[in-house]
Amino acid sequence: MKPAHLRHYMPQIAHRSVGKRSTTLTFDTFAVMNPSASIFIEWDADVAPSALKALDEMALGIPYLGRSESICNVALVHQVEDRAGYVPWRPAAKDDPPDAEILCAQQPLELSDLMQSPDVVRRNRRLFPTGSRLVPYRRIDSATVPTTADDWRPTHAAVRFAVHPRPRPTLANAVVAGELLRRASLSKHGTPSETLSGKRPSGERQLGRHEHAHYISLPGQDRGGPSSPIESLLVWAPSRLNGDEFAALAQIDWLRAGRAVSGFPDIAIAVQGFGDVDDVARELVGPSSVWASCTPFAPGRHPAKRTTWPDHIATEIERELTTYRDYPVPVSVEVIDGDARRYRRYRLPPKERLANSRYASMVEIRFAHAVRGPIALGSLSHFGLGLFKPVG
Q1: Which residues contact 250 (CB under 8 A, 6 or more apart)?
Q2: Which of 93, 196, 210, 355 is the most buried (most CB within 10 A)?
Q3: 154 with 267, same domain?
């Protein structure tokens, strides 16, 4: 099987045969397979006889799979007799690195979500239709090959570090602390780690649900603002850290910026706690229906023409919450007081310089019901920007 794609200018609903034509460039992706090959889709479920009959009739009525030229024969079978030569795939477990991500519909299905055209998706500045999510899959044969990290696997979702009190950097330099902690973790680990780096073995960035490590700076419980000293650092990985990754983090004792950042001191750190994020960073979990910026939110995309900055902020936060992090649509998103310009908003050189600094704002998000954190959104959210704390 090989991936491929075609590019078409597809007519929109307003397309006319004469005059100005309304078309949209569409990327038509597909997989090339042996025409005589078979694909089996299995569900481990008990289905009523009436539903089986309906499913059988639906299968017989499917003339093609995905593309109109992909002519196929579909039949309902109760068991796959000969599995030799087939490569099984399954949804990846939470601590398994995925081999592929499949766009799937969320449950329950909404007809309006299924009927969205590419024009509607692009007009809303989304990568995927609403009501959909990327589900990670893994080849079972590759999952059975042990790695060094799989030999021992105490897994933790978060590791918290105490920062030596003299001297302490300020929250304005959260991105510096986050990047230095990431660099130190990769150096101590020694071998490529998708969880710690956020990159696949090929070097490509991970796309999808932001399950890899976030390097977060935390002020004191009752403090906040760019001049607040950083009292703790947190490495939070929703996909969880395996034994080798945790051991690498436990070896870190210094973060040194050197000449890369003026005014950022060398700081000593030590593991303060580890486990689930509820146990080691309760102040980021909530639950709460109101969440306010601890560090400014920087949108990952530029605003469209004639879109105000507050509207752009609201659109981007809603997109990230619903598309990448399984949160409900917020009731409101409001830009609040706070000078985001006092925070560093670009990475360390040579990766980025001052000219790469992002526009950002302090924001308050309200949900209809209380939700659980941590919530970290936007550009550089894996380095400390876009961190929200529960209010109340």
Answers
A1: 159, 271
A2: 196
A3: yes
